[in-house]
């Protein structure tokens, strides 16, 4: 949630909108495939988002995210 808020506030940090007006930036938003009605700045967004993700996971409809190996982990596989 913190990461999402940080990204959402990018227009604010860039001076494109006033402080705490990031929700009005016309290019802010979220796309959750199959759930176009989810709006990230609505009061119930996180509740609805978490329910949707829970449903998708329960029904094995979520593909795991790829992990990017840490380049500084000491792994010599790429050498």
Please sum up the structure shown.
This protein is mainly α and 79 residues long. It has three helices and no strands.
Number of helices: 3
Distance between the termini: 37 Å
Structural class: mainly alpha
Q: Judging from the principal axes of the Cα atoms, what is the shape?
A: flat
List the uncertain runs: none
Mean pLDDT: 80
Q: How helical, in percent, are the residues? A: 25-40%
What oligomeric state is this? single chain
- Beta-strand fraction estimate: under 5%
Radius of gyration: 17 Å
Sketch the topology as an H/E string, one letter per element: HHH
Query: Sheet bearing the most strands, described?
Result: none
Number of strands: 0
Give the secondary structure arrangement, pairings included.
Layout (H helix, E strand, L loop, with lengths): L1 H7 L1 H4 L31 H14 L21
Describe the structure.
The protein is mainly α. Helix content is 32%, strand content 0%. The longest helix is centred in the middle third of the chain and has 14 residues, at 45-58. It is flat and about 40 Å long.
Descriptive keywords:
79 residues, mainly alpha
């Amino acid at each position: 949630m913190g990461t999402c808020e940080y990204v959402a506030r990018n227009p604010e940090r860039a001076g494109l909108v006033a402080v705490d007006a990031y929700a009005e930036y016309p290019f802010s938003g979220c796309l959750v495939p199959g759930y176009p009605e989810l709006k990230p700045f609505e009061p119930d967004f996180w509740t609805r988002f978490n329910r949707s993700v829970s449903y998708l996971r329960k029904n094995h409809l979520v593909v795991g995210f790829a992990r990017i190996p840490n380049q500084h982990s000491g792994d010599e596989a790429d050498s």
